[in-house]
Write a structure and sequence with these properties.
Layout (H helix, E strand, L loop, with lengths): L1 H6 L1 H11 L1
Protein name: Bgt-50227
Organism: Blumeria graminis f. sp. tritici
Length: about 20
Amino acid sequence: MREVYAAQPLRRFIHGFLMF
């Protein structure tokens, strides 16, 4: 599940923004 979540570009961008 985590791999699929990270695979998505849009979700990955949002995740990175939250981490930042």
